[in-house]
């Protein structure tokens, strides 16, 4: 209900192109691109059009990995609410940017699948990472009850000591740290690596400038586990598709004399 039915012609191609490779879209695969389109638009055989465009996208063909993912990871208890059970990990080995960043601190909520991508430095220790965590995660979502990380126990112990000092309390914290890999951040890291390769297009010195776009693109698309976007799960917020805002411009461009002839096919 409430969807726009798009007639056959160039508008369909423009909408598919925008939903797949627009500035805040992220070159996602067929299913996620299709979910963005289907939220506001309808036309017959939409999936076929999306599959055709994605299969011919030069940027995706050059950037996306064909390596199969790892096998099953250690399962963890199912989370009961957003930002109670989280994973944190680091993406390593990145080219140093103009501001000196060469690591990415990745924090993933198990319940909503929302993620935060935080640029950092290889030399950053547990104290600085704890401050980043407070600034970028705790101030937005509160303190989690469980954290999963493959970092060693010494790092995690110091991490929590500094964070607890930051909170200004002497109480014994109840948050548990689990030094293991659960697969949540592994999956997100693969998506993040793909997004980085797609969006940067060889500009290795400014990948940290892209993170507001990358994080927004990741958190606004529907996740196959929840059938909702992370934004919807955490904030009950359904973002107005950027496609809706650009549709009037697309229509204006299409209805020039030349484009109008191409529209009536």
TrEMBL record:
<dbReference type="InterPro" id="IPR001584">
    <property type="entry name" value="Integrase_cat-core"/>
</dbReference>
<feature type="domain" description="Integrase catalytic">
    <location>
        <begin position="78"/>
        <end position="238"/>
    </location>
</feature>
<dbReference type="GO" id="GO:0015074">
    <property type="term" value="P:DNA integration"/>
</dbReference>
<keyword id="KW-1133">Transmembrane helix</keyword>
<dbReference type="InterPro" id="IPR036397">
    <property type="entry name" value="RNaseH_sf"/>
</dbReference>
<feature type="transmembrane region" description="Helical">
    <location>
        <begin position="233"/>
        <end position="255"/>
    </location>
</feature>
<dbReference type="InterPro" id="IPR012337">
    <property type="entry name" value="RNaseH-like_sf"/>
</dbReference>
<keyword id="KW-0472">Membrane</keyword>
<dbReference type="Pfam" id="PF17921">
    <property type="entry name" value="Integrase_H2C2"/>
</dbReference>
<dbReference type="GO" id="GO:0003676">
    <property type="term" value="F:nucleic acid binding"/>
</dbReference>
<protein>
    <submittedName>
        <fullName>Transposon Ty3-G Gag-Pol polyprotein</fullName>
    </submittedName>
</protein>
<dbReference type="InterPro" id="IPR041588">
    <property type="entry name" value="Integrase_H2C2"/>
</dbReference>
<keyword id="KW-0812">Transmembrane</keyword>
């Amino acid at each position: 209900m409430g969807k726009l039915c798009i007639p056959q012609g160039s508008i369909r191609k423009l909408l598919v192109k925008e939903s797949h490779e627009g500035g805040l879209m992220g070159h996602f695969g067929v299913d996620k691109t299709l979910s963005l389109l289907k939220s506001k638009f309808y036309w017959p055989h939409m999936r076929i059009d999306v599959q055709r465009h994605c299969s011919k996208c030069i940027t995706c063909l050059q950037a996306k990995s064909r390596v199969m993912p790892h096998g099953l990871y250690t399962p963890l208890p199912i989370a009961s609410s957003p930002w109670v059970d989280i994973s944190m990990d680091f993406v390593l080995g990145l080219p140093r940017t103009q501001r000196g960043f060469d690591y990415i601190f990745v924090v993933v909520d198990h319940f909503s699948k929302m993620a935060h991508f935080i640029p950092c430095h290889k030399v950053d220790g547990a104290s600085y990472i704890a401050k980043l965590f407070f600034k970028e995660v705790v101030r937005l979502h509160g303190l989690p009850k469980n954290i999963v990380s493959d970092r060693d126990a010494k790092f995690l112990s110091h991490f929590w000591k500094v964070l607890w000092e930051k909170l200004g309390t002497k109480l014994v914290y109840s948050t548990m740290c689990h030094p293991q890999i659960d697969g949540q951040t592994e999956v997100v890291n693969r998506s993040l690596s793909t997004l980085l390769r797609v969006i940067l297009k060889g500009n290795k010195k400014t990948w940290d400038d892209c993170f507001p776009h990358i994080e927004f693109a990741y958190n606004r698309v529907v996740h196959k586990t929840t059938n909702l976007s992370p934004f919807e799960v955490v904030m009950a917020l359904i973002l107005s598709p950027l496609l809706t805002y650009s549709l009037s411009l697309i229509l204006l461009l299409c209805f020039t004399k030349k484009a109008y002839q191409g529209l009536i096919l």
